[in-house]
């Protein structure tokens, strides 16, 4: 925790009583946004779980917007998952994400939502993009095949926000975070991302007195990680940007209405595994299963636009990993759940 994100303290586009819809509020990202909104005094939050409101259903979403009339929307609902879920369930990742975002973004337009923040991931950028990845590299090369269905859906969402801004004058912004972790992460080993998977694997191996833990792939890919509370803070920061800064982001010629939100904290999968091994106090060995895919070799976001606006992440990776490990141990009995934020 090293600095103050001053702009969040001095200007607020969203009044404290604004009607704010957090789509996907039970997922890791949505729940972090709800915590942050609540801590800042926003009391008029519109929250629906998927049993009450299936965001893939056009008429349900239409009725919800017509009845509740949200003024601001954080679109954190998505079908998400790690490398194996992404590569083996492409139909679900494409269909669910396209349906959710199409319905929410369209109804945000028809109901006159003032600002909408659409969240995706840095896997939307080309597999072999120059590093660090600037927003304008979108659609300049071939996607990583293990997550191309998810990426294509998210790119469609970015295009929808841009197209609606152009044609209808909406003020919708897309933010692309790097690999996130934190409370309410998905710890199911078949569908989770690497960080929660390793936390669970090392903890269970320690408890069982196992000799080894298996890490997928070669361990050489680099990933940039950020605590989800930092993304939640960035999301409010963007939603509360003063009008001129927000307008400049939407109008940015190189990459309109698109901004990266990263920490710059990059680490190889092997080093991540060693760090979590340490934190979990596991004394056995690592085994690399190279029959599993590595995915993209590197995806370090260039987050200089966020920094120029005055935002920086707060949580150092090692501190964040310790917190995430503690959270898992305290919640592991009831938090092993399936991988989606619907
Ligand atoms: O986090 P992860 O599943 O997804 O995997 P991506 C990152 C790297 O960690 C890959 C390795 O090289 C994995 O092979 N890895 C090692 C493991 N051990 C494990 C393990 O036990 N579980 C998992 N899951 N990985 C996803 C995309 O890409 O990242 C999504 O598929 C999204 O679309 C998300 O962008 C943020 O970082 O490769």
Polypeptide structure, described:
The protein is α/β, with parallel strands linked by helices. The protein has a domain of 223 residues: Rossmann fold (3-Layer(aba) Sandwich), CATH 3.40.50.720. Helices cover 42% and strands 14% of the residues. The chain is built from 12 helices and 11 strands. The strands form 3 sheets. The protein has a 6-stranded parallel sheet with strand order 2-1-3-4-5-9, sandwiched between helices. Strands 6-8-10 form a 3-stranded mixed sheet. Helix 2 packs across helix 8 and helix 7 crosses helix 12. It is globular. It starts with 5 loop residues before the first helix and ends in an 11-residue tail after the last helix. It binds guanosine-5'-diphosphate-beta-L-fucopyranose. Guanosine-5'-diphosphate-beta-L-fucopyranose binds next to helix 4, helix 7 and strand 7.
**What's the CATH H-level superfamily name of the domain at 20-186 and 225-265 and 300-314?**
NAD(P)-binding Rossmann-like Domain
Q: What form results from the Cα inertia axes?
A: globular
By DSSP, the count of extended strands is 11
Q: Give the C-alpha Rg.
A: 19 Å
How do the strands line up in the largest sheet?
Answer: 2-1-3-4-5-9
The CATH class designation of the domain at 20-186 and 225-265 and 300-314 is: Alpha Beta
Structural class: alpha/beta
The main sheet comes to: 6 strands, parallel
> Could you give the order of the helices and strands?
HEHEHEHHEHEEHEEHHEEHEHH
End-to-end separation? 31 Å
Low-confidence stretches: 6-10, 335-342
Helix content: 40-55%
Average pLDDT across residues?
94
Q: Beta fraction of the residues?
A: 5-15%
């Amino acid at each position: 925790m090293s600095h103050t994100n001053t702009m969040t303290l001095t200007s607020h586009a969203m009044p404290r009583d604004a009607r704010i819809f957090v789509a996907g509020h039970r997922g890791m990202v949505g729940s972090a946004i709800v915590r942050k909104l609540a801590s800042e005094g926003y009391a008029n939050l519109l929250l629906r779980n998927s049993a009450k409101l299936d965001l893939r259903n056009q008429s349900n979403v239409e009725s919800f917007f017509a009845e509740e009339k949200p003024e601001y929307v954080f679109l954190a609902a998505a079908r998400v998952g790690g490398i194996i879920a992404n590569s083996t369930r492409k139909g679900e990742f494409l269909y669910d994400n396209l349906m959710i975002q199409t319905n929410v973004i369209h109804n945000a337009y028809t109901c006159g939502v003032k600002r909408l923040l659409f969240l995706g991931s840095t896997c939307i950028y080309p597999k072999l993009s120059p590093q660090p990845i600037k927003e304008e590299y979108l659609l300049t090369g071939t996607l990583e095949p293990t997550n191309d269905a998810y990426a294509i859906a998210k790119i469609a969402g970015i295009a929808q926000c841009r197209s609606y801004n152009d044609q209808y004058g909406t003020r919708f912004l897309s933010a692309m975070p790097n690999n996130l972790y934190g409370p309410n992460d998905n710890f199911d080993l078949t569908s989770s991302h690497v960080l929660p998977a390793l936390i669970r694997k090392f903890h269970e191996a320690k408890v069982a007195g196992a000799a080894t833990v298996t890490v997928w792939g070669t361990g050489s890919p680099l990933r940039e990680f950020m605590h989800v509370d930092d993304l939640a803070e960035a999301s409010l920061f963007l939603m509360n940007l003063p009008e001129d800064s927000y307008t400049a982001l939407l109008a940015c010629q190189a990459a309109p209405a698109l901004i990266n939100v990263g920490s710059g904290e990059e680490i190889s999968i092997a080093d991540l595994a060693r760090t979590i091994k340490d934190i979990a106090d596991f004394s056995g060995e690592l085994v690399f299963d190279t029959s599993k895919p590595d995915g993209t070799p590197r995806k370090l976001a260039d987050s200089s636009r966020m920094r120029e606006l005055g935002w920086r992440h707060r949580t150092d990776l090692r501190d964040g990993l310790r917190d995430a490990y503690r959270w898992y141990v305290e919640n592991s009995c009831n938090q092993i759940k399936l991988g989606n934020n619907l």
